[in-house]
């Protein structure tokens, strides 16, 4: 369409002589021009323009006493209608843009709120006399002495129990001392590694605790676990190593000579899972079981025992999934959303609430535990799960 033809069409529109199709075309032009304009007036200017249009229209009508008054009235009304359309269109676009800006700003606030930092190395060490040491705030070096044992914070930040160093300095005999127990506790959003006096290493996951003697005496080495931990047990065939768990009253005992394994025994999980990585372990339930069910099983590498409602069972598993947390990953293989949310709750120190029933879909992914919460949630959002956060409460919307 030429410029002359366009001018004629606009003139017809002002005269009220356009067909519905032509009127629609003119109005679309106005709207397009407004959307492309970088000089859209503010709301106050639009309102002022609307008032001026109304006043001018009334003045023109009052002054017009000629025979073509009706025609002029229509012309002014049509012109006013176009101007009002422009102003209202601009007002609509401004509010549309403002709403979009507000939505972007709100999304930015939500993203910022969801950018909760991941957990880190932090724990509390409770000594035999009840004294508590916040390990993340402690300096490198000797933290305390328990009997013949020096408790050190190593250069890598881990805690190491050194029985040989102090014994050689003090010439103390461990067999003549009473057994003293320490407790290492990680909060939600924390993890820690400790090397016991027999050189056994324990990696403690978030929201967990392990109780152990400063020195192992007698014929056994026994520790008590709540939560989740990965063990690398120092070999000693004369002193079997035992891990005792008690999840919601279900007591389990793991006996080893020297091996690598993971134990998950959180109270908010439905079962206690022991996964063997290397060596051999014997897992037994301390409950009275039915006559047809053995009260112990022997695990081989790649196997996992499951204790549920006093019943022990085994299955072959992907061991990488069981110990992914120790290597710095979340890894789930066909896990439900509830299981994933419990992991996120412990690592990011958040509470989780569901607006509706938890979705039944299963997830399969592997992602770094060093990511912020919002980055992990993106994976779940791609599968249709929506979230919002209030303080440190993550709300699962669908």
Question: How does the SSE layout of this entry go?
Answer:
Elements: H1 3-15, H2 20-36, H3 43-63, H4 69-114, E1 120-121, E2 124-126, E3 132-134, E4 141-146, E5 149-153, E6 159-162, H5 163-170, E7 181-186, E8 190-195, E9 201-204, E10 208-213, E11 221-232, E12 241-247, E13 250-256, E14 260-265, E15 272-278, E16 281-285, E17 296-299, E18 303-308, E19 311-316, H6 319-322, E20 329-336, H7 337-348, E21 351-354, E22 362-368, H8 373-381, E23 387-390, E24 393-396
Parallel strand pairs: 1-8, 6-8, 11-12, 21-24
Antiparallel strand pairs: 2-3, 2-7, 4-5, 5-6, 7-10, 8-9, 9-11, 10-11, 11-14, 12-13, 13-16, 14-15, 15-18, 16-17, 18-19, 20-22, 23-24
Highlighted features:
398 residues, alpha+beta, 3-stranded mixed β-sheet, 24 strands, 33% strand
Report on this model:
This protein is an alpha+beta fold and 398 residues long. The protein is 33% helix and 33% strand. It has eight helices and 24 strands. The longest helix has 46 residues, at 69-114. It is elongated. Residues 37-47, 52-58, 65-77, 90-94 and 166-176 have low confidence and may be disordered.
């Amino acid at each position: 369409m030429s410029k002359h033809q366009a001018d004629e069409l606009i003139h017809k529109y002002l005269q009220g002589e356009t067909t519905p199709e032509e009127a629609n075309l003119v109005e679309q032009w106005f709207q397009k021009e407004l959307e492309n304009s970088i000089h859209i007036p503010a709301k106050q200017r639009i309102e002022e323009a609307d008032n001026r249009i109304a006043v001018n229209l009334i003045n023109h009508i009052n002054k017009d006493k000629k025979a073509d008054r009706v025609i002029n009235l229509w012309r002014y009304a049509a012109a006013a209608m176009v101007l009002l359309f422009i102003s209202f269109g601009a007002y609509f676009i401004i509010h549309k843009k403002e709403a979009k800006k507000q939505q972007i700003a709100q999304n930015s606030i939500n993203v910022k709120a969801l950018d909760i930092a991941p957990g880190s190395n932090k724990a509390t060490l409770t000594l035999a006399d009840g004294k508590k040491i916040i390990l993340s705030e402690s300096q490198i070096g000797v933290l305390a002495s328990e009997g013949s044992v020096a408790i050190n914070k190593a250069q890598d930040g881990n805690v190491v129990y050194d029985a040989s160093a102090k014994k050689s300095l003090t010439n103390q005999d461990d067999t003549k001392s009473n057994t003293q127990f320490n407790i290492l506790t990680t909060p939600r959003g924390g993890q820690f590694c400790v090397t016991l006096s027999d050189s056994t290493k324990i990696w403690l996951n978030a929201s967990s605790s392990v109780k152990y003697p400063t020195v192992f005496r007698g014929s056994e080495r026994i520790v008590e676990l709540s939560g989740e931990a990965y063990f690398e047990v120092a070999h000693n065939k004369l002193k079997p190593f035992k891990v005792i768990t008690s999840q919601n009253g279900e007591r389990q005992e793991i006996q080893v000579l020297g091996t690598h394994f993971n134990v998950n025994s959180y109270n908010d999980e439905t079962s206690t899972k022991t996964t063997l990585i290397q060596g051999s372990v014997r897992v037994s339930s301390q409950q009275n079981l039915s006559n047809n069910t053995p009260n112990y099983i022997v695990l081989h590498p790649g196997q996992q025992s499951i204790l549920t409602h006093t019943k022990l069972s085994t299955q072959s598993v992907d061991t990488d999934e069981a110990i992914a947390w120790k290597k710095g990953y979340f890894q789930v293989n066909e896990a439900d959303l509830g299981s994933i949310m419990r992991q996120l709750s412990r690592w990011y120190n958040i509470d989780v609430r569901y607006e509706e029933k938890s979705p039944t879909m299963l997830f399969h992914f592997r992602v770094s535990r060093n990511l912020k919460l919002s980055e992990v949630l993106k994976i779940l959002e791609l599968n249709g799960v929506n979230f919002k956060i209030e303080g440190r409460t993550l709300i699962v919307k669908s």
